[in-house]
Amino acid sequence: MDEPIIEVKNLSKKFGTFEAVKDVSFTVNKGDVFGFLGPNGAGKSTTIRCMLSLIAPNSGTIAIFGKNLANHRTQILKNIGCIIEKPDFYRYLSAEKNLEMFARISGRDSSKKEIQEMLEFVGLDGRGKDKVKGFSHGMKQRLGIAQTLLHKPDLIILDEPTTGLDPQGIIEVRNLILRLKTEQQKTVLLSSHQLSEIEIIANRMVIINKGKSMIEGSVDALVNEQDLLLQINVSDYQNAMQAIELEFPALHVKHLHGSIIEMALEKEMVPKINYFLVNKGFSIHSLEPKRKLEDFFMKIIQE
Amino acid sequence: MLVRNTYNEFIKIIAKPRSYIGLGVLTALIFVILFAMKADGSSFVSFVTASFEQTLSFNGNILNGNLIAFIILQMLIVHIPLLVALVTGDLISGEAAMGTIRMLATKPISRTNIVLSKFIAGAVYTLILTLWLAFLALIVVKWMFGTGDLIVLNSSGLIILQEQDIMWRYLCSFFVAYLALLTVSSLSICLSAFAENSIGPIVSTMGIIILFTIIGSMDVTVFDSIKKFLFTTHMASWRSFFEDPVKMKDIWQSIIILVVHNIVLVAIAIIKFNKKDITS
User: Fold this and answer.
1) Residues A218, A204 contacting (CB under 8 angstroms)
2) Between B184 and which of A156, A288, A290, B81 could a Cys-Cys bridge form, CB atoms 3.0 to 4.6 Å apart?
3) ipTM of the complex
């Protein structure tokens, strides 16, 4: 049975009259790499900040490791490693000194050897003595991950960890997160505004928009590659719609705009529809299969 | 966790270049005063004693280390608050500006302990500044100018204090001066809890000191009732140790008012920081 590590229930937060988070609920289970997906400004960071007690929610409850955050803050935070938006360090101190200081207040002193090993793990070996002010964004991001892991927490919360990274850096961070799951069995909550990123890394996810949780479930179930939305740019679209509905009564075809029609179907149906329309003498200008979730997510973003 | 974070705060203060500005400026100012006294100290003394020379005869080394230490204390106690605020005003808001406050506040340390560790670190930094001032004023100056009786001019006239009766007065006055500077430190830490940048609390601290000093120096009845509660009124109470007899009642009143200020300011900082949404 799944063991819940994070349980957020009916969380709401207002800044003045602006409601940043409205009644958000979701559960992260032990061992999950949980995707926290939403467009920019959806309320992801505010929710995460509430989960780390940086922001006090107006209502709702947050339980982590089975304990209420409001009553067991210090105890819970001992077992969490996190990066919020971008990792910021004391620029005038070296990478090693920064790690040493953060480890000291994480409730666990780290030996020089552990710090070296961690710097090696994130690909910063040989740069430990350098001051952080000389680090690139990518290096700071890696140092942030080192800071997150150094005190060996069970839960890792990463808020947009690939923002500002080059493609190589993005791949490295993704691989690092996957290693955390496979090699160290950590529970990871990963926030992102990119569906593709969540698809690759996460096993479960929630989508939030305008402060509300829209959908939650396993990535496999939500990002089912079999279920598609097919958009066809076809000549004489009205007759084409009628013909499709007569031949395939299970399909519901709707007109989008211009000569574009859309229908939800399984992947295997795409060549059949194509063959059918061509045989009936319709000219197909374009045929674009889209995954349902991607479409759903895009609609959310465009709203 | 308080001890661990206080240790971290010391590391930060030691590593920050701005922490040395205070010590450097203080040293430079003192050596400027010493140079001026060495070059033209006798005319400075004559200016003070001129009005008494018809009735009194001054013999011996008047321009001695004790007098110059007094002049230094008198001149610099007005400026040292800026040097204190430069470091302590940055302790919380500097972290907000740098973004490290997020990292700090997600660690298993209470926000109250975060503020307290910063207050302790600020208090130690202020103590170091005060001790450095004391070292330069009492040790270096006396080594350069020698020792002797101290002539002090105050509102009730000219006071001559015997050489062997001076050191305890200086030690006590440095303690009270420290308490006054600690209040400046607490004020700037308190303001720092409200701000998201370093400059605001530093400028605000100096603004408050200037405002309160002006109110304290204005002979207007309407301000009389509040004057004794302004911490700036008690920043110069170290001078009371150079009265004869020493007005212990006034000094104790100043100490109590300064201590109360410190407690209230730190309490405000703790309450504010505990309630603060960290959105930076």
Assistant:
1) yes
2) B81
3) 0.81
